[in-house]
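Hey L., structure's done. Input below.
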Amino acid sequence: MMRSTLLFTLILFLAACSDNATNDQSTKSDSSEKEAVVKQVTIQTEPVKTADKPAKIETAPISGYTFYAHKCASCHGKNGEKAAFNNAQIIAGWNKEKSIAALKGYKDGTYGNNLKGIMKGQVSALSDAQIEAVSEYISTL
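Output:
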């Protein structure tokens, strides 16, 4: 009886070890497959560069209202009715050309007084098209 119990235990032990070896191989196989998928995705998501032209980063279009609501309204008021920091002009009623000139001037540092630094930070990343869009919106206030 002792021998059969010992033999049975040995068989169970060997069976368990062989299952672990199989599981280890399948785990290694699964991780290799995952690495291959990750490498494949990484390769597919890199930008395509041509020898002739470097990759071009384009500025996303922005609506004048969206920019105004997020960057301008807190100081100038929802409808352009406030003098920002009690020291700026009220922009409600400005035409598009006046707004474009002011925003481009803030961007290049040629326009404004003591609020020039604040405004430069607000408009420095805007493209000409985006300046035109926000100026168009300001002209409707």
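The domain at 64-138 is CATH 1.10.760.10 (Cytochrome Bc1 Complex; Chain D, domain 2). DSSP finds five helices and no strands in the chain.

-- N.
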